[in-house]
Amino acid sequence: MGKVTGFMEYERLEEGYEPVAVRLKNYKEFVIGLNTEQAKVQAARCMDCGTPFCNSGCPVNNVIPDFNDLVYRGGETDWKSAIAVLHSTNNFPEFTGRICPAPCEAACTLNVNDDAVGIKSIEHAIIDRAWAEGWVTPRPAPVKTGKTVAVVGSGPAGLAAAQQLARVGHSVTVFEKNDRVGGLLRYGIPDFKMEKSHIDRRVAQMEAEGVVFRTGVMVAHLPEGSKVTNWAKDVVSAGELLEQFDAVVLAGGSEQSRDLPVPGRDLAGVHFAMEFLPQQNKVNAGDKLKNQMRADGKHVIVIGGGDTGSDCVGTSNRHGAKSVTQFELLPQPPEVEDRPMTWPYWPIKLRTSSSHEEGCEREFAIATKEFIGEKGKLTGVKTVRLEWVNGKMTEMEGSEQVLQADLVLLAMGFVSPVASIVDAFGVTKDARGNAKASTDFTGGYRTNVGKVFTAGDMRRGQSLVVWAIREGRQAARAVDEFLMGTSDLPR
Ligand SMILES: Cc1cc2nc3c(=O)[nH]c(=O)nc-3n(C[C@H](O)[C@H](O)[C@H](O)COP(=O)(O)OP(=O)(O)OC[C@H]3O[C@@H](n4cnc5c(N)ncnc54)[C@H](O)[C@@H]3O)c2cc1C
Ligand code: SF4
Fold it and tell me: For residue 225, what pLDDT is reported?
């Protein structure tokens, strides 16, 4: 807790944003975090509620009242303790402090009838100060176990698993098919939401802790003569990993984008969001791309109302699109949630992202019937309005319309992991095509193949960074237990 009466004395203060006109000129982060004094006042709003629902609302179970109390006290040793508390449950608070949707705040007791404590902004302030002050240092294991672990995939799940395992003395190698480490944090999430130097800094820390990163290496069972996809240069077979390592963690994400197979899908100008977004990440990193897919001067339609869609909106506006429209199949949700009905759970309500604020038409209850084109090139999108009655969707007669479009970005989520990597290890899949493993306290995260474990989007399906960190940490404990018979790693 912070100050017992703080919630009655102080208002919630949101983090600041650079003005739209300034931030649209570049791809830099534009959120202005709380300073030490502001964080202290915000932490003071954490009351002695007795049952901190925020702690279970947070997927990594951050010990929120404790770090709030330390930030409220405000001494340097308190801040040092605050980062220790935060790191005890979360390997990468600089990621979540920037891009977590903060389900903890929906669960905050103050959120029943007031504005929730600004937990995410306090987390952001703690970790940014900790890095700035040099309090985040490598923590190499004092004793090596002689055991080896291969982690496939360097997204947040793979990184969390690798760091936990290295810190208890195992020799960990991370295999990543892309040319840089980070998974969707690196190639997906735009730099303006999270600059990539945050990943590089952690990678340096993990290397100092003994983790070996092998980028540009695809783990697969590729039939002879088949092409290596993405930016991978080398292939390592599943068999090699099983032979050479004592345990394997599959954290390859959920990379199969959901398609929209309507007439005209093959027209030039209709693309998956994940063809578009990673290219801008690469350009921001200084790479030279031939024929980058760009939105300059185009009428852009983004199909899909979630995070990925919103990132396409922000990137298109930075390119200088003529217009940006985002479609959502579902009807527009209410602007304000029904708190007594939803608290402490994640409420359905209209969420307006910073990218939406930068300029975007949002269309709800609309479906795409056809992509229209001339000479093989997209010129428009034929749509129909939808009516939702008792959860059932029907098309409204006579509501068909053609909207001008030069670029369509499909951002309708991800169906499953790419099957070949799961199959290459002989791992059983669940009904949705994810690598199958439970989350049981004993034996969780372990697949049907003895020494193969799985975590993150590859196991649970498309989700969030904070869930991937949780799964990576829990899978690490399961692996440690498997290798050593017992484990001191937290779950
Ligand atoms: C555009 C976009 C925006 C998002 N925004 C947010 C957000 O704001 N907040 C949030 O919480 N979540 C967000 N998410 C979701 C979040 O990024 C994911 O849930 C999270 O990254 C999953 O982590 P992961 O480690 O399981 O997998 P990933 O991050 O997908 O990483 C998997 C890694 O495995 C590698 N890999 C796969 N197969 C192989 C192989 N055979 N050999 C070698 N390497 C392999 C991949 O190249 C990749 O680097 C967003 C997702 C997208 C697509
Ligand atoms: S990781 Fe996300 S849910 Fe957990 S405390 Fe931080 S912002 Fe809240």
Answer: 56
CATH topology of domain 259-412: FAD/NAD(P)-binding domain (3.50.50)
Taking CA atoms only, the protein residue closest to ligand 2 atom 3 is 58
| Residue 68 backbone phi and psi in degrees, to 5 | -60, -45
Smallest CA separation from ligand 1 atom 48, residue = 183
The reported pLDDT for the residue numbered 174 is 98
259-412: same fold as 6-133? no
Query: Tell me, which fold does domain 148-255+415-484 have in CATH?
Result: FAD/NAD(P)-binding domain (3.50.50)
Report pLDDT for 364.
97
Backbone angles phi, psi at 344, to 5 degrees: -95, 20
Q: Which atom of ligand 1 is found nearest the CA of 175?
A: 43
Q: Low-confidence residues of the chain, pLDDT below 50?
A: none
Q: What token pair was written down for 304?
A: 């899909």
pLDDT for residue 222: 61
CA of 141 to the centre of ligand 1 (A): 28
| Contact status, residue 23 vs residue 56, Cβ threshold 8 Å | no
The answer to whether the CB of 307 is under 6 A from ligand 1 is yes
Q: How far is the CA of 253 from the centre of ligand 1 (A)?
A: 5
What's the 142 CA to ligand 1 centre distance in angstroms?
31
Q: What phi and psi, each to the nearest 5 degrees, are found at residue 415?
A: -85, -45
The single-letter code of the amino acid at 373 is G
- pLDDT, residue 9, reads 96
Mutational pocket test of ligand 1: of 163, 189, 414, the residue with most ligand atoms within 8 Å of the beta carbon: 189
Determine the Cα–Cα distance for residues 490 and 477; give it in Å rounded to an integer: 7
The ligand minimizing its distance to the Cα of 116 is: 2
CATH domain 6-133 topology: Fumarate Reductase Iron-sulfur Protein; Chain B, domain 2 (1.10.1060)
Q: Is 317 helix (H, G, I), strand (E, B) or coil?
A: helix
- Distance, in Å, from the CA atom of 98 to the CA atom of 328, rounded to the nearest integer, reads 25
pLDDT in tens, 232-291: 678 899 999 999 999 999 999 999 999 999 999 999 999 999 999 999 999 999 999 999
149-189 pLDDT per residue, tens = 999 999 999 999 999 999 999 999 999 999 999 999 999 99
- The angle that helices 36-44 and 119-132 make with each other, rounded to 10 degrees, is 150
Residues framing ligand 2 (Cβ under 6 A):
58, 60, 62, 64, 90, 96, 100, 102-104, 119-120, 123, 466
Structural domain spans, the chain: 6-133, 148-255+415-484, 259-412
